[in-house]
Amino acid sequence: MGTNENKFTELSNIIRERHSIRHYDPDFKISDNEIKEIIKEAVSAPSGNNLQTWRFLVITDQKLKEKIFTVSNDQHQVLEASALIIILGDLKGYQQAEKIFTQSVKQGIVTEEYKDAKVKKVKENYEKENSRYGNPNWRKEIALIDGSLAAMQLMLVAKTKGYDTVPMIGYNMEGLRKILNIPDRYINVLMIPIGKAAQPAHPTLRLDVEEITFWNGID
Ligand SMILES: Cc1cc2nc3c(=O)[nH]c(=O)nc-3n(C[C@H](O)[C@H](O)[C@H](O)COP(=O)(O)O)c2cc1C
C-alpha cells in the first residue's frame, strides 16, 4: 500500500502517458485472455443502478477489420491494431437486474428483500414508457454514460499493461452496424483499437482549469 502521494503520482503518470495512438505494429497480437483481463478491470467502472449496460464486441479477425476499414474514413489504426474493441450500450441491459442483484444476495452484500425491491423498481422504471428510464432517450443517455466510463477505464488499464488505444467515433456507424449485424438494442458508444504503438501520439494540450471550471454557479 503506497502513500496517497505515491498513488496520486502513479495514477497521474498513467493518465498522462495515455494518448491516442494512430499507428500500430500490425504484427503484434494481444491474446484473447489479456483482452478479457483488460475488460474485467474496465467494468469495475460505476454504472446507473449498477446495471452495467456496457457490452464489448471484440474484433480480432483481420478480414473483419478490413471490412470495418471500408467504413472508417481511411483510419489505418483499424487495420493495424491488434484488436478493435467496440463498446456498445445495451438498451435492454436492465433485464439483467435480477441476475445482478441475485449475485449480490449470494455474496451476502444485500438481503433478499433489498434485491426484490430493487429489481421491482428497476423493472417499473425501465418499462413504463412515461417514466424517466422508460424514456428511450434517457435510456440511451444512461447507456452512453455507462459505456463511456468503462471505455475510459479500459484505455487506462490497457496503458498500464503497455498497450495503446484510441477512442473513435469517426466512422460510419450505420455501415459498421450492417457489417457486424448489430441488433437495434445495442447502441454505439465508441470503437477502441488496441495494440502496440508503432509511432508516438501527436501531442495534445488541454484548456486551463480556470477556463473550464465554474464555482457555485455560471455567470
Ligand atoms: C468521442 C471521441 C471520438 C473520437 N474519434 C476519433 C476518431 O474517429 N479518430 C481518431 O483518430 N481519434 C478520435 N478521437 C481521439 C481524439 O482526437 C483525442 O482523444 C484528442 O485529440 C485528445 O488527444 P489524446 O487522446 O491523444 O490525449 C476521439 C475521441 C473521442 C473522445
Describe the structure.
The protein starts with a helix and ends in a 7-residue tail after the last helix. The protein is of the alpha+beta class and 219 residues long. It contains 9 helices and 4 strands. The protein is globular, with a radius of gyration of 20 Å. Strands 1-2-4-3 form a 4-stranded antiparallel β-sheet.
Terminal residue distance: 43 Å
At the fourth level of CATH, the homologous superfamily is NADH Oxidase
Structural class: alpha+beta
Number of domain units: 1
Mean pLDDT: 96
Number of helices in the DSSP assignment = 9
CATH architecture: 3-Layer(aba) Sandwich
CATH class: Alpha Beta
Rg, please? 20 Å
Strand content: 5-15%
- What fraction, in percent, of the residue positions are helical? 40-55%
Low-confidence stretches: none
| Spatial arrangement of strands, main beta sheet | 1-2-4-3
CATH topology: NADH Oxidase
Major β-sheet annotation: 4 strands, antiparallel
Write the layout of secondary structure elements.
Blueprint: H1 4-17, H2 32-42, E1 54-59, H3 62-69, H4 77-80, E2 83-90, H5 97-106, H6 112-127, H7 136-160, E3 164-165, H8 173-180, E4 186-195, H9 209-212
Helix pairs in contact: 2-7, 5-6
The structure holds flavin mononucleotide.
What's the short version?
By secondary structure, this protein is of the alpha+beta class. It is built from nine helices and four strands; from the N terminus they run ααβααβαααβαβα.
